[in-house]
Design a protein that fits this description.
Chain C: InterPro entries: 4Fe4S_Fe-S-bd (IPR017896), 4Fe4S_Fe_S_CS (IPR017900), NADH_quinone_OxRdtase_chainI (IPR010226). The complex is a heterotrimer of chains A (158), B (850) and C (168). With 850 residues, chain B is α/β, with parallel strands linked by helices. Chain B is built from 28 helices and 33 strands. Among the domains of chain B are: 100 residues, Ubiquitin-like (UB roll), CATH 3.10.20; 230 residues, Rossmann fold (3-Layer(aba) Sandwich); 163 residues, Dimethylsulfoxide Reductase, domain 2; 101 residues, Barwin-like endoglucanases (Beta Barrel), CATH 2.40.40. Chain C contains five helices and five strands. The chains are: A alpha+beta (158), B alpha/beta (850), C alpha+beta (168).
Chain lengths: 158, 850, 168
């Protein structure tokens, strides 16, 4: 079992709040993601068993939502928005800068298992473009200097 | 969606105009259905008549006046005064645009695609599409890793190949799998451009209805290896036929090639009364056994200790001579006959006439795998099994009660019906069984009674009904005839609580239309007479048949036909009278049924057997005892498709033609007579059973029929008799027999068909073997944990009568001390574990180490 | 008298004229060929025996789609497909009955893979009818003609209709 007892209990509680058990899949995926940090087939199976829904429906929902990483990520998942507003304000060069700075390509994880860099679709913060999301936090109006500072802080925290 | 208007009297009708044509349909009908009903064609990909609409493909665009944009007709409800145009310029432009988008990623590989020639997309592109694409970029390609192929085909099941490039994402496969079959092994993953249909990660699409997914695929994304790269569809001819592996007799269509004398595939021939267009994999791939290289090619005759091939004339003359000799020396009482209930009406009637008229005996039967047979002709079980039952009535029932049946394995079409009823209506479905079954997933509640307490459960139901409604007629009379006579002790014995029994009784009393299905747990039980008596009491008390239907469903393709033609020693009096009239006489002797014949054989009082298409040595309970019985015979003649355990003991073996090789009629469980046309010429030297019998009768100088016309007329006259037996006039005694249980054998054994096999013949069908090639012990996760076994580990199963070894399959449905063993495999004969004398087959299992 | 004069004119005047024509042709190149030692070059679009093409890497172009057989007005083509080990489709049996074939070239026109075309050879004779059923191996031989003018036309027609060239 990858999921711990608390997660399973929480999933079951959430699932029981909906008129259809199927509706409990998304909260369950979120709970599993919060605990494990990513999702995989084994986790889908455990969720299916925990909230008693078909395994394939869990897998369908999980693969539909690209926001759930399907591979283990570093401690900090850097998601750079690459949609129109951010792109116009230099998201591409931001990604390049991050790649260069972290020494990895897009989609990879640093050797010390600290950072994973991906680019994502619009995160709804166009007014403050370019922006990125690291784990659950938004970092907005980015410049190279700002990125340096953020990374340093995170490194220090880790 | 329910098409029946008789049960819902107040259906509001709406009138709309489609292409200047006024159409009136019930409210709730979609525009698409209204148009199709009026004979106006609208192209579709994702719509299926038996599934809910999703509007995924958008090819069914129509123009509706006062609506600003084109509407998808499959998801637009028809309303009063709607004006619809299906062929206007704007509609055509819309369709063209949709096709252009679909073709943006659909590869142009029609030459290598098996769907080419019968592809909806191909036809529509030809009719509406552009001859050019405006998409300059490369098409999306789902590459299968590790396969050096440009074709990108992925095997997602034993029989199913998936080409995701060709997929147009109509979701029909996923929807039908979830909605119609209740299976969850295929899904739609990812999203956007990367979206793909695929098997659930780490799983195979191997459910018993998986062939339907291929059939309904509008493009060549799903293909089956059965038909893959074999022949082009336009080179084949079609023959309508019937599925004979199943008692509902789903309608099928064979694709065959006349010059090659070969069938290439089976698809369904939708019949809304029976199958709704869904057929099981057994029906779909079962035809392959016809082309098996193991088919008997020539008649075999025992010369010395070996069976050697001989010519037909020699074999037939020998059979006629030997039967006449035995008749002369020992009398016709010493000759018996068994015919398979999967034979056609002509063969069965010829058999009846051959045994009764030519030989003059009444020892004949068609019930080949029953444990015990009713002695009295008007037994409770005969009543129960002769009751009329209509499959389509399930759709409109509001209470569906499945008693003692593992529907997926026994009656798959009825299982799909119940599922459909649940999808489109709100019936209450109850599944009552002594072990957990897959088909219970359609049930609102599943009840498990203690093994061998069927009659106690039904008694409990009667008692609960009396408590719920004391005014029921004759309640006191019933109470005197049954034991235990109080609800609580009945509930305690059968292991279902009194409250549950009361709730069940309440639904049975209040149900407006009830479908009560009785399955194999009753039909094949040693004490089925007692259980049937209890069910008769229940019907008398609650009046189920006055508000619906209740029957022990027939199990084989022509069981009802055999019953109607009187292929039992004591046929229904009307049938007996008709036969006497036709033949000018009927054997005086009482005759023995299967069980009786076997005991006579064991005593040495029955010396010759004629067996048509049956394998009692492998199918009848207690393998060793039956084998021993057959060894005592002086003369055994068997006609079959393959060499079996029974043919191995025969003096003469005759090659039988399969149902595809001659035109035959079959009576399904509803009593519906259906015809299977001849698809191919008989292979090798095989002959249909009626021709074999006619030959033997001619050799004995007692010709059966002067012409085929005479045979047909006789059958018609016999079939005209009703064989429905009246319900008993009073409550019947129900005294549950004691259940024998030895603590040394704690586990209940269930023997039945694997969902992908039927009887003993389907192991010759190559595709079905791919799904399941060998016997297995299906056991509950608890038992697996207890014995520390996993999938594939070998276990020894031991009963008082025999033992065998088989690999383990951990079940997803079974719970508790129950194991299931399929009876379809010649390597592992399940019948060696069971006895005719036991009510429940108790076994013990242990792990085979190493 | 008049007739005699006419005959004399014919003999002494007209006949030498004819001889002169004959004599002229003696010094001209003959129009006949010394067949079979010498063969007539066929028109570029002549339709003779069938060839099956291969790709550069040696795999057969034919995928056994059956369109040539479907297009064949004489029903001369028989084929059976099979699956290669890596899941591709190819012909297991591909036979053309040259006795039935009317050399119309419809097969060539129908072929979506440009796998079959009709060559220049026209000499078919044998003592045995069976030898006229050509198998796949008989047609998958290296062929003398590199460019097929007819294929050029097909490609042009395809371009007009926007069908991409099947050649990979």
């Amino acid at each position: 079992m990858i999921l711990n007892k608390e997660s399973v209990a929480l999933m079951q509680k959430k699932a029981s709040q909906y008129p259809r058990r199927k509706s409990g899949i998304l909260p369950a995926l979120t709970i599993a993601y919060r605990q494990v940090g990513h999702l995989n087939d084994q986790i889908y199976r455990e969720i299916a068993k925990a909230i008693n829904v078909p395994y394939v429906e869990v897998a369908e929902a999980a693969t539909f939502y690209t926001m759930f990483p399907k591979q283990p990520t570093g401690k900090y998942l850097i998601q750079v928005c690459h949609n129109i507003s951010c792109a116009l304000l230099g998201a591409d060069s931001l990604v390049e800068y991050l790649e260069q700075k972290l020494g990895i390509k897009k989609g990879e994880t640093t050797k010390d298992n600290l950072f994973t860099l991906i680019s994502v679709e619009c995160l709804g913060s166009c007014a403050t473009a370019p922006m990125m999301q690291i784990n659950m936090d938004y970092y907005e109006n980015l410049t190279r200097a700002k990125v340096d500072k953020i990374l340093e802080e995170l490194r220090a925290k880790a | 969606m329910s098409t029946s208007t008789t049960t819902q009297p107040a259906v509001k009708m709406v009138t709309l105009t489609i292409n200047d044509q006024s159409v009136t349909v019930p409210k709730g009908t979609t525009v698409l259905q209204a148009a199709l009903g009026a004979g106006i064609h609208i192209p579709t990909f994702c719509w299926h008549p038996k599934l809910k609409s999703v509007g995924a493909c958008r090819i069914c665009y129509v123009e509706i006046e006062k609506m600003p944009k084109l509407q998808v007709s499959c998801a637009t409800e028809a309303t009063d005064g709607m004006v619809v145009k299906t062929e206007s310029d704007i509609v055509k432009r819309g369709r063209k645009a949709v096709l252009e988008f679909i073709l943006a990623n659909h590869p142009l590989d029609c030459p290598t695609c098996d769907k080419g020639g019968e592809c909806d997309l191909q036809n529509l592109t030809f009719a509406h599409g552009l001859d050019d694409s405006r998409f300059d970029f490369l098409k999306r390609r789902h590459i299968v890793p590790g396969v050096p192929s440009t074709f990108d085909d992925l095997r997602i099941g034993p029989e199913i190949m998936l080409n995701r490039n060709r997929c147009i994402l109509c979701y029909k496969c996923v929807r039908s799998n979830k909605e119609a079959f209740g299976e969850y092994d295929i899904g739609a993953f990812e999203r956007g451009n990367a979206m793909e249909i695929n098997a659930a990660p780490g799983e195979q699409v191997a459910n018993p209805f998986s062939g339907n997914l291929v059939e309904i695929c509008p493009v060549g994304a799903l293909t089956n290896s059965d038909w893959r790269y074999k022949i082009r569809v336009w080179l084949t001819q079609t023959t309508p036929s019937i599925d004979i592996f199943n008692s509902s007799g789903s309608n099928i269509l064979f694709y065959k090639e006349d010059h090659k004398n070969r069938i290439f595939r089976t698809i369904s021939r939708r019949n809304d009364e029976i199958d709704d267009g869904w057929i099981t994999d057994v029906a779909r791939y079962g035809y392959q056994l016809v082309h098996s290289p193991d088919r008997l090619q020539k008649p075999l005759m025992k010369k010395g200790s070996k069976q050697v091939p001989v010519e037909w004339e020699e074999a037939v003359a020998f059979v006629a001579r030997r039967l006449a000799e035995i008749d002369d020396t020992k009398g016709c009482v010493c000759i018996g006959g068994l015919a398979s209930p999967t034979l056609d009406l002509d063969s069965l009637h010829s058999f009846s006439k051959f045994m009764r008229k030519v030989i003059g005996t009444n020892n004949l039967d068609f019930r080949i795998d029953y444990r015990s047979l009713p002695e009295k002709p008007d037994s409770a079980f005969s009543t129960l099994s002769s009751q009329p039952f209509t499959i389509a009535e399930i759709d409109t029932s509001d209470v569906i009660f499945v008693f003692g049946s593992d529907l997926v394995k026994e009656h798959p079409n009825e299982y799909l019906r119940i599922r459909k009823a649940r999808n489109f209506g709100r019936p209450l479905v109850y599944s009552v069984n002594s072990f957990n079954v897959k088909s219970a997933d359609v049930a609102d509640r599943e009840f498990i009674y203690a093994p061998g307490t069927e009659e106690v459960f039904i008694n409990g139901l009667c008692l609960a009904a009396i408590e719920e409604n004391p005014g029921l007629s004759g309640a006191d009379g019933l109470k005197r005839k049954i034991s235990p006579a109080d609800l609580n002790s009945a509930a305690k014995t059968c292991g279902v609580s009194a409250e549950d029994l009361k709730a069940l009784a309440r639904t049975l009393i209040n149900g407006k239309k009830i479908s009560f299905i009785v399955g194999d747990q009753v039909s094949l039980s040693r004490d089925r007479e007692v259980i049937a008596a209890a069910l008769c009491n229940l019907n008398r008390l609650v009046g189920i048949t006055s508000r619906g239907q209740m029957a022990a469903l027939a199990r084989y393709a022509d069981s009802i036909g055999a019953e109607k033609l009187g292929l039992i020693p004591n046929p229904h009096p009307d049938v007996k009278r008709a036969l006497t009239d036709l033949w000018g006489g009927f054997p005086e002797m009482a005759g023995y049924h299967t069980e009786g014949m076997f005991s006579q054989m064991l005593k040495g009082e029955l010396d010759a057997m004629v067996i048509l298409g049956a394998n009692p040595v492998a199918m009848y309970p207690d393998h060793e005892a039956v084998a021993e019985t057959f060894e005592k015979l002086d003369f055994l003649v068997v006609a079959d498709l393959f060499e079996t355990e029974t043919t191995a003991m025969a003096d003469v073996v005759l090659p039988l033609a399969s149902w595809t090789e001659f035109a035959g009629r079959y009576v399904n469980l509803e009593g519906r007579i259906q015809k299977a046309e001849r698809a191919i010429k008989p292979l090798y030297e095989s002959k249909p059973a009626y021709a074999i019998l006619a030959d033997i009768a001619a050799a004995a100088r007692k010709p059966l029929f002067s012409s085929a016309r005479e045979r047909e007329e006789e059958i018609e006259k016999v079939l005209a008799c009703t064989t429905v037996r009246p319900w008993p006039g009073d409550y019947l005694d129900v005294r549950p027999p004691a259940i024998d249980k030895d603590p040394a054998y704690p586990i209940m054994l269930i023997i039945g068909d694997d969902p992908h096999h039927r009887c003993y013949v389907t192991e010759k069908a190559a595709s079905l073997v791919k799904f399941c090639s060998d016997a297995y012990i299906e056991l509950s996760p608890e038992l697996a944990e207890k014995f520390k076994v996993e999938d594939g580990d070998a276990v020894r199963v031991e009963s008082k009568y025999g033992k065998l070894m088989a690999p383990v399959k951990v079940s997803r449905v079974l719970e508790g001390d129950v194991v299931f063993l399929p009876r379809n495999f010649s390597v592992t004969r399940a019948n060696s574990l069971v006895s005719r004398k036991a009510r429940i087959d108790w076994v013990r299992i242990n792990k085979v180490s190493g | 008298m008049k007739e005699i004069l006419k005959a004399l004119i014919n003999v002494f005047l007209k006949m030498p004229q004819g001889f002169v024509v004959t004599l002229k042709h003696v010094f001209k190149k003959p129009v006949t060929l010394d067949y079979p030692r010498e063969k007539k070059p066929m028109a570029p679009r002549y339709r003779g025996r069938h060839y099956l093409e291969r790709y550069e890497d040696g795999t057969e172009r034919c995928v056994c789609c059956g369109l040539c057989a479907a297009a064949c007005p004489a029903d001369a083509i028989y084929m059976e497909p099979e699956e290669t080990p890596n899941g591709e489709r190819k012909a297991k049996v591909y036979e053309i009955n040259l006795l039935r074939c009317i050399f119309c070239g419809f097969c060539e026109e129908a072929c979506p893979e440009e796998a079959i075309f009709l060559g220049q050879e026209y000499e078919f004779s044998d003592f045995n009818r069976d030898s006229f059923i050509w198998r796949k191996e008989d047609m998958l031989v290296p062929h003398p003609r590199k460019d097929n003018p007819f294929k050029r036309i097909i490609r042009r027609v395809r371009r007009v209709y926007g069908v991409p060239d099947a050649a990979r």
